[in-house]
Design goal:
The chain is of the alpha+beta class. Helices cover 28% and strands 30% of the residues. Strand 1 and strand 2 form a beta hairpin.
């Protein structure tokens, strides 16, 4: 991923937060004639570190075994996981200056590494349980899966689980860093008024706006 210097964020904890908050990733790997691309949930293992560098860590994912993409995933094959964070279109009206041009603010993390398919019902079931626990605690309402364990066992033969070993990370936080602090404030007001508060929050986390002595500072 091409990332201009002003949009680079190397803080691994902010990269981890994007992955945790946007668990539906795109798995991209080589295919015959064109890449395979599958949308699927990806999580950090429950027993893994909660912070620190992503390189060298492991992620867990799963997809349908009927998907041709699963059949193409050999042990150790290179792949990329794409996580899309908060994003939104900016109308030039938000700037209240001319000349101006429309654009799109967004946050994205690309994780490159290798895929390692998991064999066996019980190891696959463990990935499903960890995925349910992670997503339910973060996005659900505390559902207890205890009464559904037999159902899980019936459906798990159709599930292809894998470990993803992280080798490199690229992240792009395109959040109006090139604009003046007063225009950044206008952009944040624009997103907040338009129901895009997560984009505003990402801009604040980047240290943008009039409330900061510096702007566009790279981490």
């Amino acid at each position: 991923m091409f990332v201009p210097p002003e949009y680079q964020v190397g803080d691994p904890d902010r990269q981890r937060a994007v992955i945790r908050d946007n668990a539906l990733a795109m798995l991209v790997s080589n295919g015959s004639g064109q890449p395979f691309i599958t949308h699927l949930p990806v999580i950090f293992p429950l027993a893994g570190p909660m912070s620190g560098e992503l390189v060298g860590t492991t992620l867990l994912g799963h997809l349908n075994r009927a998907n041709p993409h699963w059949k193409a995933l050999s042990d150790g094959c290179p792949a990329t996981l794409v996580f899309t964070g908060p994003h939104g279109y900016i109308s030039p009206e938000a700037y209240r200056v001319t000349p101006a041009a429309p654009t799109w603010n967004f946050v994205s993390v690309h994780v490159r590494g290798t895929v390692h398919p998991i064999d066996g019902i019980d190891p696959t079931l463990d990935v499903i349980r960890q995925t349910v626990a992670t997503l339910e605690s973060r996005f659900g309402k505390g559902w207890d899966p205890a009464d559904s364990q037999e159902y899980f066992r019936r459906i798990v033969p159709a599930v292809g689980a894998f470990r993803f070993q992280v080798a490199a990370v690229d992240s792009m936080f395109k959040l109006s860093q090139e604009k003046s602090p007063d225009i950044q404030e206008r952009v944040m007001d624009y997103f907040s008024a338009g129901g895009k508060q997560p984009v505003t929050d990402s801009m604040r986390a980047q240290g943008l706006g009039c409330g900061y002595a510096t702007r566009g500072e790279k981490e």
